[in-house]
């Protein structure tokens, strides 16, 4: 049996990361063009089940390399009250929980915006570069689709 990623319908309004400069080498929030991107589920937000589709074009998998892409939610537009609700670890197998290098490819991260039963209004993607001098910088695109 093979698994198939359901990509849903792409909508430019749900784009979380597609910068004008291709690669990143330092930890940063997702950007569309040069602007940080946050999706607002609305002031009357309820539970939102979604999937983040992550297309990784470049990621360091050499010795010691690790990059983490987090799907985050917040109640106050990321000034504080920030929660990771979905995680994709990329890099060298020795740095990851599993036993295989994880790099270029298309990934699906299912998540919802509930934290301890409370729906959070805002959503973004945040990439953490876990080394100071990456051999390969991180290049990815991220968008949301309904679950």
Write the layout of secondary structure elements.
Elements: E1 15-19, E2 28-29, E3 31-33, E4 35-36, E5 39-40, E6 49-58, E7 66-74, E8 82-91, E9 105-112, E10 114-115, E11 118-119, E12 122-129, E13 139-146
Parallel strand pairs: 1-3
Antiparallel strand pairs: 1-13, 2-12, 3-4, 5-12, 6-9, 6-13, 7-8, 7-12, 10-11
Give a written overview of the molecule.
With 147 residues, the chain is an all-beta fold. It has one domain (26-146): Jelly Rolls (Sandwich). 0% of the residues lie in helices and 48% in strands. The protein contains no helices and 13 strands. It has strands at 15-19, 28-29, 31-33, 35-36, 39-40, 49-58, 66-74, 82-91, 105-112, 114-115, 118-119, 122-129, 139-146. The strands form 3 sheets. A 6-stranded mixed β-sheet has the order 4-3-1-13-6-9, with no helix packed on it. The radius of gyration is 15 Å and the shape is globular. The relative contact order is 0.34. The model is unreliable at 1-5 (pLDDT under 50).
Give a brief rundown of this model.
The chain has 147 residues and is mainly β. It is 0% helix and 48% strand.
Descriptive key words:
147 residues; mainly beta; Jelly Rolls; six-stranded mixed sheet; five-stranded antiparallel sheet; globular; disordered N terminus
Into how many domains do the coordinates divide? 1
Q: CATH topology, anyone?
A: Jelly Rolls
Number of helical stretches of at least 4 residues: 0
* Structural class estimated from helices and strands: mainly beta
Main sheet record: 6 strands, mixed
User: How many strands appear in the DSSP assignment?
Assistant: 13
Distance between the termini: 21 Å
**Proper CATH architecture:** Sandwich
Uncertain spans: 1-5
Proportion in β-strands: over 45%
